[in-house]
Write a structure and sequence with these properties.
alpha+beta; about 25% strand; globular; six-stranded antiparallel beta sheet; 2 domains; Glutamine Phosphoribosylpyrophosphate, subunit 1, domain 1
């Protein structure tokens, strides 16, 4: 039932109540570029409540320019940088997903994996759902709208019911024409944080994006929590009685930027302490310590500090290629 493959990361970013929200989202996604380099996109809401989208394959600086960013008006937006984890690549799988519906349009971005996606997709297709992508991220939208009786109820209720049908590690942002919903899996496997800019708010997979856009950290979205951000401010609901803080170790070891704080712990400090522990538990006779750029440099610093060995530069990374570990195929990773 559940996939045994190693699944990796994407990055999500959202803005509510901040002028030129799409531009703020652009800079937020640029700060999260390390989390996904295959494609990216932004959806904004203009003053008429209309949702507009720009997305494409490539890096943030390759997809967006002054012309297409200028077409995304309004003080609300969500964005995504993609590394394919389920469903493969292709423009149809690049997020945000934008859904047109008679009860109101909405957009969705997702970081993580729905491990029971095959079962849910069949369940939904048997009830008439037509999917526009092969990504597991799209499943939440169809679950929200699966029953006619739920279409006229406040959206928070079908969202919470849908989340209780999903198993896996995830952080979702759902944006309507006047509010943003933010939610994390009940295990707390994927990070999602809230920041503040003036009277508005931002949401991000990592806190490193907050300093870039001038936001102040407020708090993390908790495991099993759904946050609603609108003109009422921030409101919180728990969709599950089971909540656990079981952050994916790869966030600390590899995925996250060293200047991010994950659940109150600085990533650089965590990696450095890991290096010290490695020396104490498995030290070797050596002359120097060499870190492998970039993720292990902090750990190498800790190992060198604990061992008293000099830290030297022995490996150089080409700054003009992306992160090789998150290339979509082993062949491309080997070439990197």
């Amino acid at each position: 039932m559940f996939s045994k493959e190693l699944k990796e990361e994407c990055g999500v970013f959202g803005v509510w109540g901040v002028p030129h929200a799409a531009e703020v989202t652009y800079y937020g996604l640029h700060a999260l570029q390390h989390r996904g380099q295959e494609g990216c996109g932004i959806v904004s809401v203009n003053d008429n409540g209309e949702l507009h989208r720009v997305k494409g394959l490539g890096l943030v600086t390759e997809v967006f320019n002054s012309e297409n960013l200028g077409s995304l008006h309004g003080d609300m937006a969500i964005g995504h940088v993609r590394y394919s984890t389920h469903g493969g690549g292709g423009i149809e799988n690049v997020q945000p997903f934008l859904f047109k519906h008679n009860t109101g349009d909405f957009a969705l971005v997702h970081n993580g994996n729905v491990v029971n996606s095959a079962q849910l997709r069949k369940y939904l297709e048997d009830r008439g759902s037509l999917f526009q992508s092969t990504s597991d991220s799209e499943i939440l939208a169809h679950l929200i709208k699966k029953e006619p009786v739920e279409r006229n109820s406040p959206r928070i209720y079908p969202i919470m019911e849908a989340l209780n049908m999903i198993e896996g590690a995830f952080a979702f942002l759902v944006m309507t024409n006047h509010r943003i919903y933010a939610m994390r899996d009940k295990y707390g496997l994927r990070p999602l944080s809230i920041g503040r800019i003036g009277d508005g708010y931002v949401l991000s997979s990592e806190t490193c994006a907050f300093s870039v856009v001038g936001a102040e950290f407020v708090r993390d979205v908790e495991p099993g929590e759904v946050i609603t951000i609108d003109h009422h401010g921030i409101r919180s609901r728990k969709y599950s009685d089971y909540q656990r803080h079981a952050m994916c170790a790869m966030e600390y070891i590899y995925f996250s930027r060293p200047d991010s704080d994950i659940e109150g712990r600085n990533v650089h400090s965590f990696r450095k302490e890991s290096g010290k522990i490695l020396y104490r538990e498995s030290h070797v006779d050596a002359d120097i310590v060499v870190g492998v750029p970039d993720s292990s440099l902090s750990a190498a610093s800790g190992y060198a500090e604990a061992s008293g060995l000099p830290s030297e530069m022995g490996l150089i990374k080409n700054r003009y290629i992306g992160r090789t570990f998150i290339q979509p195929s082993q062949e491309m990773r080997d070439k990197g």
